[in-house]
Amino acid sequence: MREVERVFREEYGRVVASLVRRFGDIDIAEEAAGEALLVALEKWPADGVPPNPGAWLTTTAGNKAIDRLRRDAKSHDKHRQAMQMHEQTTAAEPPEPTGIVTDDRLRLIFTCCHPALAPEARVALTLRLLGGLTVAEIAEAFFVPETTMAQRITRAKKKIKVARIPYRVPGPADLTERLTAVLAVVYLVFNEGYLSTSGDAPIREELTGEAIRLGRVLRELLPDVPEVAGLLALMLLTEARRRTRVAGGELVTLQEQDRGGWDRSLIEEGHALVRECLQTNRPGHYQLLAAINAVHTDAPTAADTDWAQIATLYAQLYAVTPSPVVALNRAVAVAELDGPEVALAEVDRLDLTSYHAWHATRADLLRRLGRSAEARAAYDAAIAATANEAERAYLARRRGTLAQ
Amino acid sequence: MTQYLLSVYMNESDEMPPEEDIQRMYKAVDEFNEKVRSAGAWVFAGGLEPIEAATTVDGTKSAPIVTDGPYVESKEYLGGFWVIEAPDLDAALTWAKEGSAACEGRVEVRPFQAEPA
Q: Does residue B115 belong to the interface with chain A, where contact is any CB pair within 8 Å?
């Protein structure tokens, strides 16, 4: 039973994407997928999981959909339309015995991340349709009531239908811009899992895992887009450090992490992607962030960190994404090269008073300059600006070690 | 094919642009309209006289009521619109982006309900 559900969830995205293409309707696709699950729950425990479970589920779901549409075509417009859609798509292509065409998922991701949908709806829809997460799981992940999340998803599906958002990979003119939205959704899911703005578990594994899975799907489907490789590398290199990032309910910074606890295979994979991006030499936001992470993960100890390279990369990143947060992170590198005084001057020029990391950075620089009273005030401000328990515990401890 | 309403909203607090800007916009909109027509996407379009020219009618009660002014009291008001035909939202949005640039204003894109079969 568990095994069946696990496989179903892994294959959900493929199955739904294929059905959406054939029938042009997300609700019909989901219903059919659900019915296929029921059949699988009945048959697989006895017969074993089939060798190509995705294909089996897609074929079964397709048949269920056709049966239902034949029954209902007389009474429901939408079913008649879906039947027509099915006939058109089947006539246009030879029947695929496996029923899995990889770009169906690509089409579906682009549809879910369409700019006409509200940003939170894009995230919810992507996790539901491509991630196979249940509405309850997504609601929990984003700290909203289940009914709210259910409504959000229902509205998004309705908008897709009523406004006629097409199920299509965008053409070359729009691809870059549309891909930006897709990558932003995946990265948001990853960050939500990794950083978790509030709640008890500072890091939520199922979301980071899901984001990486989606990142891999995108990489498979778009092997020549360097920013896709960059995002995957960034997530892998960040995830590699997950186990060492929290200890005893408290955040452990990069300097203090036990590098022996890092996941070497994820780091290798991330480094290989970064090397590939460097060769392609079409740098972008995610590639630069990945490269910065790679410099960190390349250093055997914190003391070996190549801060000069990091500062240079942040400068390049600032040219691409001139945000104060990037400037802040660059200042942290500058502190290692030119000292805390120079770095503090840069940090103080930034307008980030509601960002806990800005206060935390100031606190640390002030501490290094021996300005304990100001450092204490900055730690207080940092703690007030974050709801993450692990971050707060870390900041409180640091504040506690200040000279009186 | 679906019909979409592309509406252009103005804001009362917007200043009347100088004559040369108005001429530029008219020209750009004319060119855009020609493009829409040639593509076969044109259904109807027009610019509306300013809001001062509006009259509101309420025929819902036993005796109809006629009042001077718009239905909605707000700073924003409808300046003009296009009705186009497009296969999907992406196509409608492509038109809307060009139309918005031509008339130098924001455009709202809304699908019409389908006619009952």
A: no
What CATH number does the domain containing B41 carry? 3.30.70.1060
Q: What is the pLDDT of residues A4-59, one digit of tens each?
A: 888 888 889 889 999 999 999 999 999 999 999 999 999 998 998 899 998 999 99
| A66-98 pLDDT per residue, tens | 988 888 776 666 677 777 777 776 665 544 433
Q: Is A396 exposed, middle or buried (0-12, 13-18, 19+ CB in 10 A)?
A: middle
Residues 6+ away with beta carbon under 8 Å from A56: A40, A50
Instruction: Give the domain A323-404 fold.
Output: 1.25.40
DSSP A170: P
How, if at all, do strands B2-11 and A250-251 pair?
Answer: unpaired
Q: How far is it, in rounded angstroms, from Cα A79 to Cα A64?
A: 13
Q: Residue ranges of the domains in chain A?
A: 1-101, 102-198, 323-404
Q: Assess if residue B105 is contained within a domain.
A: yes
| Contact call for residues A168 and A17 (beta carbons, < 8 A) | no
Looking at the structure of chain B, the number of domains it has is: 1
CB B83 within 8 A of CB B5: yes
Could you tell me the pTM of the whole model? 0.83
| Chain A nearest C-alpha distance from B4 (Å) | 9
Which structural domain, as residue segments, surrounds residue B98?
2-46+72-111
Q: How many CB atoms lie within 10 A of CB A393?
A: 17
Number of CB pairs, chain A paired with chain B, less than 8 A apart: 26
Report CA Rg, chain B: 16
* B1 in reach of chain A (CB within 8 A): no
